[in-house]
Each structure stands twice: as C-alpha cells, then as structure tokens.
C-alpha cells in the first residue's frame, strides 16, 4: 500500500513541477509509452536486484 502511495506522490510532484515551469503536456503524452517503459522497467529491475530471494 505504501508503494502505491509513494508512486502517486512521485508522479504528482513530477507533473506539478512540470506544470509550474509552464511545460507542454502534449510532449509528455506523446512520449509517455516509451518513457514509462524505461522508467518503470529500470525501477522494477533495481527493485529485483536490491531484494534477492533468500533460499
């Protein structure tokens, strides 16, 4: 549950910062699939590496 809350906080802060700097959301929408793949894939890979399964 805390992971989901943390994810929403991160995404909300990133979008709020982008909005405060008068960013164009069209660019984010058009680049979203590739960017999400890289960011989420990298984060998931780091999570898997940092929490190895103990036998």
Any overview of this molecule?
The protein is elongated, with a radius of gyration of 14 Å. The chain has helices at residues 2-20, 25-50. It is mainly α. The two termini are 26 Å apart. The longest helix is centred in the last third of the chain and has 26 residues, at 25-50. It has one domain. The protein has two helices and no strands.
Summarize the structure.
The protein has two helices and no strands.
Largest sheet: none
Please give the count of helices: 2
Helical residue percent? over 70%
Q: What is the assembly state of the chains in this entry?
A: single chain
- Strand percentage lies at under 5%
Terminus-to-terminus distance:
26 Å
Radius of gyration: 14 Å
Question: How many structural domains?
Answer: 1
* Uncertain residue ranges: none
- Extended strand count: 0
* Residue-averaged pLDDT: 84
The outline comes out as elongated
H and E order: HH
Write the layout of secondary structure elements.
Blueprint: H1 2-20, H2 25-50
Entry keywords:
mainly alpha, 55 residues, elongated
